[in-house]
Amino acid sequence: MQKQTKAIRTQAPKSQNREHSVPLYLTSSFAFESAEQGEALFNESEPGNIYSRFSNPNVTEFVDKVCMLENAEDGIATGTGMAAVFASMAGLLKSGDHLVACRALFGSAHQIITQILSKWGITYTYVDATATEAEWEAAIQPNAARPNTKMVYLETPSNPGLELVDLTMLARLKEKHGFILNVDNCFATPILQTPLDLGADLSIHSATKFMDGQGRVLGGIVVGRADLIAPIRFFARHTGPSLSPFNAWVLSKSLETLDLRMERHCRNALALAEALENHPDVARVLYPFLPSHPQHELARAQMSAGGAIITIELDGGFERVSAFFEALQIPTLSSNLGDSRTIVTNPNTTTHAKLKPDEKAALGITPGLIRISVGLEAIDDLIEDFLQAASVSAEVLQERV
Ligand SMILES: *Cc1c(COP(=O)(O)O)cnc(C)c1O
Hints:
The chain is an alpha/beta fold. It is about 40% helix and about 15% strand. The chain has helices at about 5-10, 35-40, 55-70, 80-90, 105-115, 135-140, 165-175, 190, 225-240, 245-255, 260-275, 295-300, 315-325, 355-365, 380-400; strands at about 75-80, 95-100, 125, 150-155, 180-185, 200-205, 220-225, 285, 310-315, 330-335, 345, 370-375.
């Protein structure tokens, strides 16, 4: 059976009611049948649930399904994507360790690395996503000398610049230098890209995005090598960033349609990207599966489709963006992404507003940049709406001059 079939068929154990749809195990704790069973569960000679901060049937089902899709040995779910990112670092790094990270990171990951881990003496070096193998290697501090590089952390494709990192190249460096390769796979989802198959050790998701897919719940997960998940699980069990059973129940059901949704998301996104690229009033379109993307070849090699995120650049700065958003009829203005509804945002004034001017410049975040999270609406409606908004907003600006 293919892994998608297996993920759909994987379910939490049935109760005596023989329910087909998995019930919600909204229970904080689990009862012991005897003193001996309590002892056995705690000393792990008998597997089973004890307390929902440690494990819960709905959460386990969600983790099992993602492990299936990612070809992962083990995993741990968390209350948000950021909790997964933080647990993966806090569970594995200690004072004196060095982290190499891709510069193009989700805003809060940047804050964890620069403001939080640094308090505990964990140092870092940033590298550009598009850096060469030699440039990545130069950032790695090898051998037992302190500080030594324990982890390389990155997102591919990145937000909002849609830069890609070559995972096979980093896996090669990993063989040589022995760091942990930790990949935020949120934008691609396990449907389009499986980093573990390309040599990564850990793969992280904000389940809030495409995994839920309908903007309802927050959630996160880290999956990968069992020997690395063990210390992350220890960290999570005792510090408590657990995923709620209700959110896990929602997410487990959502995963059953992830493959189907990603197919439509990607088809819509490619068609919209092509239409926008041919519009005279759109200065630039970035989409990994457009031949004009600077890393198009890598995208084709590493991903099975281009994803649901398109980034466009409009001439005329914030004023033009404002007119464009005003003219759009269908999309929602929101900082979220990965929803069945198309969403647009201006990263410069929202998600990435806190970055310093030089950091924005390094990531290509300009005032006229717009991130589009393409939804599942009928593509003809989306194309018509975006094209008219591009024209109308250009006219509005011209009238003002
Ligand atoms: C949203 C997001 C996160 C953070 O996830 P939350 O669920 O909001 O905590 C991390 N990485 C990427 C790429 C994201 O898009």
